[in-house]
Amino acid sequence: MDDLLTDFIAETRETLDAIAGELVAWEADPGDRTRLDAIFRFVHTVKGSCGFLDLPRLQRLSHSAEDVLAEVRDGARTPDAALVSAVLAIIDRIGELTDAMESGESLPDGIDSLLIAALQPGEAEAVAGPAQAAPTNAPRVVSRSIRLPVDLLDRMMAGVSDMVLARNELSRALRSSGTDTAADVAFERLSQCVAEVRDAVTRTRMARIDGLFSVLPRMVRDLCSQLGRTVQLDIDGGDVELDREMIEMIRDPLTHIVRNAIDHGIELPEERIAAGKSASGRLRVSARQAGNQILIDAIDDGRGIDADRLVAKALAAGLVTAEQVAGMTLQRKLALIFLPGLTTASSVTEISGRGVGMDVVRANIERIGGMIDLDSRPGHGVRLTLRLPLTLTIIPALIIASGEHNFAVPRSAIEEIVRVGRGDVNLQHIGGAIVAHIRGRSLPVIDLGAFLGSESAEVASRWPVLLVVRSGGGEPFALLVDAVLDHEELVVKPAAPAIMATGIYAGTTLPDNSRPILLFDVAGLAATAGVATASEQIQEEPAAEPDGAVAVPTLLFRDLDGIRRAVRLGLVERIEDVGREQVAETGGLLNLAHQGVIVPLIAGGPLPAAGRLRVLQLGDGQSRIAYAIDVVIDIVDLGTEFTPVAASGPIAGITLLDGDQVELLDAHWLFASRIAPRSERAPTCLIADERDPWARQFLEPVLVAAGYRVLFGDVAATERIDVVIGAVGGSELEVPCIRLRAAAEAGEGESGSIWRYDRASLLDAVAAAARAGRG
Amino acid sequence: MERLYLMVRIAGELVAIDANEVGSVVEIDNITRVPRVAPHIAGLFALRSRVLTVIDSRAALGLGKIEGAVMPEAVVILIDGHSYALLVEAVEDVASAGAPSPLVAKLEPGWARVAIGRLGTERGDILLIDPAQLILGGEEQAAAA
Asked: Does A545 reside within a domain?
C-alpha cells in the first residue's frame, strides 16, 4: 500500500504541475470546454484513486469539485469567477494535502468543509480568503523516488547492451591472447559489474503486471460492499511483463473499467437471480501475450451494454445525428460509449457514471499505441480487451532453426514441442497439405522450411521437430522446424516497416551473440500460410488412448555453473559431501577417490578451489560415476516428454517445470564418456612366467588398463583362460598363446612373436586371441 | 548556400546524399537474411546493440543486386525511428555543393523515383537522391513481394 501511496502522491503532484497552466487559462476564459475537460479529468482521477486508497478527505474534496464541474459541463451552471476560484481553492487544497501526506504531518480539517461549501452558488465570497491564507510553509520532504524520462532509460539500456557486446568481444580477445591471471581476474569483475548493471537497467524498464493487478481484489471488495454486489474476481496472467511506463498508463483505464463493470455491468444479487444467473457476479481480469501484443481482458457476466439506450443518449446529447445512427452497425453503436460526456448509467453514483471513464480510458490507451475492443452481449456481459503494443517488452522465446535461418517463437504461443516419428506423432500428406497427428489430435502443419523458401529446404533435418502453437484466440497449428536450439529472454523491438509488411514477424531482437533474430508473429504466420481456416475443417479425432504422459521422480539441482538441471532419481545412488582434496585431475579428466574406490567425476562447471564438494553418485547397476553439483533444489515428478537439444553432450534436452526450463542430464552420454568398455566377463590373460618382474611391473598394468583380468603362473583348472602370454619358448596349453621377445628384431626361432614394447601389436594380438578363445 | 553531400556509387553511377541525413558509414558483414520480404531488403545487421535493416540500393532501383565485396560499405540512415543501412558499391567522398537545381532530362523509372535534383560540382552534374525513397523500394517490387 505504501508503494501505491507514493505513486499516487508523485502522480498527483505531477498532474497538478501539468494542469497549473490550464487552471490559469480556465480562470481567464471559464467557457473553454477543453480546459474544463482537462481539469474535470484531474479531479475525477484523484477521486477514483482516493476511493481505493482510503483517503476520505481528498475524496470528499475531489468529489464535490467534480459535482460542480459536471454541472458546468452539462450546462446546468455557468462558470463565474466565484465558482472558478472555489474550484481552484479545492485544487490547491488537494496539492497541500498531498504534500502533507508525504511529509507525514496532518493539516487541520476545518477548512475542507468551508471550501466545499464555497462551491455552492452564492457562497463563494464567504471563503475565498482561507484558501490563499493557508500557505505551505512546511519544508518539503526529500523524496526517495524520482521520475525519469523514459528516453533516458532507453539510452541507458542501449548503452548497457553495447557494453555487453564489448565485454563479449574483450572476452574473445583475452581467450585468444593466452592467459594472464591478473587480466582474467579484472575481466571477471568487469563481467560481474556489467551483468549487475544490465540487470538493474532492465528492471527499471520492466515490471510484472502483478503490481497493477494486486490492487484489484481490495478495490473490488470495497466497491462490492459499497454497492451491495457480490462479485467473484478472477485474476490471471500477473506474470506477464510489461514496460513500466505502459503499466502506469493503463493503471487508470483499468481502474475505470473495473469500476464500470461492477457499478453498471454486474446486477444486484436479486436481479441476477431473477435473470436466472448465480447471485454472485463474475469478473475476470487477465493478461496474456499474443503475438506482438499484450492483451488485457476484463470480462464480466453482467447485463451488458444496451446499445439502443446508448444511441438515445448520444442523440439527446447531440453527439451524433439520426442519419449517422441509421447507418451504424452494432459495433459502431457500442463504440459510442467512448465519446466524451456519455454514459448509460441512469443515476450518478460516487463510483462512476459521469461519462468520463470511457473517454479517458480510450485516450490513455491510444496514447501508448494501444486499442480497445468492446464486445457486449445484452444480458450476458461485456468483454473489454485492451491491446497493447509489445514494444520493449521482454518476452521468453524459443530459438528455432529452419534451414539456414534462426527465428524466435514466443514461448507463450507454444503449447507443446514434439518430435516427429516419436511415440504417437506422425505426419501425413493430404492433397499437398501436411497434417500432424499428435496423440489422436489432428493439426494443420506449416512446413517452415518450405514456407520460407529456404535454400536448404530439401536437406531437411533427419529429426524434425513440431511446435504446437496457438496464437491468442486462434486455432492451434503445428510448425515444422529443423531443431529447437535454445531458450532466451529477448528484448523485442519493432522491425522496419518493410519487414513488418510481410505480416509474419513481430519484431527483431538481438541475442548476446549479436546476430539479429526475427520474432515470429504466430497469428500472422497462420494467416499468411493459410492454416487459420484449414484447421476448422479438420475434425479432431477422439483420443486413441488416455494421455500417455508418465511422471518420473526427478532430482532437481543447481549445477556448478548456476544452471538448474535435473536427473532422473532412479539413477542417483547417493548424494554425498566430499573434500575437494579427494578430487584430482588426471589426463584432463577428473576422478574422485572416495571410500577406497576411484570414481570418475564429471563437473558441469569449475570446481571450488577448496573446501567441501557435493556430488551425486550415479549408478547404472554396474558402473558408477560422480557428478559434482552446487546444491540440491528439490525432488519433483517430471513428465517423460522433453525437447532434445541439437548437439549431443551432457544435456539430453530441456523440459518445462512450472513454466521454467530445466536441462535434463543425458545419463547415457555421461556414462559413455567415462566408463571404459567392459564385457560381462573380463577376458583373462595368463602370464606364464610368474617370476618375471617385467611381466608384473610392465605388462600387467597395460593389460588391466585394457580391461583384462591377469593371472600368473599355475592356476586352478577351473579358471577359464582366454589367452596365454609367455616368453619365447613355448607353452603346452590349449589356448591361444602370444610370445613376446626382448629384442626389436625377431631372432632365430622367434617367428610369430611380438616385441614386448610394441604396445599396439601386443594389445591387438591379445584381443584377437581372446576373441578366438571365446569363439 | 553550400552544403555537404556524401558521394556514393550505386549501379555504377555517382550520386549524392545530403550529409545531414547520414548517420555514419559502416562496413557490413554477416547479414542475417530475412525470408519473404521485398527483394531490396537484403536483411538485418547488428551495429553494436542496434539492429539495422540493410537495403540493397541497387535492387531498390530495380537494377539488379549489388555483388562482389566481402565487406560492402553501407550508409547508415535513421528514418521514422528505424535505422537502415544502404548498401552501396562505394563511398567516394564528401563534397560541398550548392542547392540542387531541377532535373532537366527524363530519368529511368528507378532513378526518377529517388531523385531530388542535380548538383553542380567540380566533378560535373551529380544526381541528388532521397534515401527515404530508396528505402521504400520500387512499387512494382512491393507488389511482387
From this structure: no
